[in-house]
Amino acid sequence: MARDAVTVTTLAIDSGTARPTGTTVNVSNGMTIAVAGNTRKLIVELLQTDATSRVATFPKGTTQEAVRAGVGDLAITCAQNVRQYVVLESARFVQTDGAIWINFAASFAGTVAAYRLSDAA
To answer: What is the pTM of this model?
Structure first.
């Protein structure tokens, strides 16, 4: 399965950054956020638009560096039109490709966006 890529938007310091539209969820594909093994200052935004609450799951990491993978997956329940912001640790969630993956429950509809705080912040 080829996962859909979520682009990371860097939030500039001492400036405004326009909110991205996000990547539309395709339940069959899941998503990947390319972070090269570094989740420092990363914020993931989930917006679920289906009328019923649905779950987005961040699967535990599969790399040697994911020393906290034993804690398990992280399941976030998303109500309709309520934005959820998630901060993740690389020691728990980084996959073998260096990315963070997201899986979605059936009928999850909506978008995912990712932000990274500027290094100057």
So the answer is: 0.92
Strands (E), 1-121: 4-6, 8-11, 23-24, 31-34, 42-48, 54-58, 74-78, 84-86, 99-104, 110-117
What is the C-alpha to C-alpha distance for residues 64 and 99, in angstroms, rounded to an integer? Answer: 14
Q: How far apart are alpha carbons 62 and 13 in whole angstroms?
A: 33
- Digit-coded pLDDT (tens) for 61-101: 998 888 898 999 999 999 999 999 999 988 999 999 999 99
Q: Work out the burial of residue 63: count CB atoms within 10 Å of its CB; fewer than 13 is exposed, 13-18 middle, 19 or more buried.
A: middle
